[in-house]
Structure formats: structure tokens, C-alpha cells
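Each letter names a residue; C-alpha cells follow underneath. Both lines appear below:
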Amino acid sequence: MNRTLPLLITGAMLLLMLPQPVLAGNSQVGVLNHFVTVPVAGLTAEGIVAYRGHSFYVSTIGFTATNGSIFKFDKKGTLTQTFTLPGLPIVGQAAIYKHSLFVVACAGTLSSGAVVKIDLKTGVVNTAFSPVPTGCP
């Protein structure tokens, strides 16, 4: 009896510590694969947002660039559209509301910027949607 309880506890702990994919069987939950590569040298991906499961928008940061870039990819990873944000090379996180893409973009560290609105139906980029006069991180 004295040895049985510790063995049972040890066995139960080992079962709980099995990796989740082993317990899940053939499920693909948690599997990461390379999806896309930013198509312009010198830019780094910063934010990604999916739109209706068929397209993905990737915002980028370019510390030596003069304009910002957002790339639209289809679900296969093919580049389908590029949006340019004049004078705002640091494009941060992105969010979609209804048929508009919103991103935070800055001219540089601790400088002016804006919340930029992109109409996903027309592709029109509105950098004056909500100016941020100072304090971009």
C-alpha cells in the first residue's frame, strides 16, 4: 500500500504531461507553417489580419523607407494587392471593421502619425482619417 499510492500518482502525472498533439490524434491544431514572405527587402512584417477567410493583410515596418506598405495575400499566399501609405513608413497593428481596414502608422519613432483607414471595396487609402500629432511609439 505504501508503494502503490506514489506509483499511481506518478503514473497519473505522466499521463497528464503527454503533449497535446499526441492526445489529439491527427488534429492540426497548433501546427505552424510558413505562409508568406514580405515581398520587399528592408521591410519587416508587423501585423496580420484575416478578412472573411479568403484574404490576409500584412502591415510592415520600414525604418529606412519613406512610405508605408500593406500587402494583401490570398489564402494560398499569393500577393494580390499592395497599399502605399505616403510618409508613414512604420505601419503597426491592423484591424478590420465592416469593409474597412484600420492601421496605426507613424512617420518615425516619437513622431506624428495617424490611424489610417483603407476601404476594402474601393482600395482608397485615407491617411487623414484620424491624425495623431505626436507620441507615436
In short: The two ends are 63 Å apart (CA to CA). Residues 39 and 79 are 8 Å apart (CA to CA). The chain has a mean pLDDT of 80.
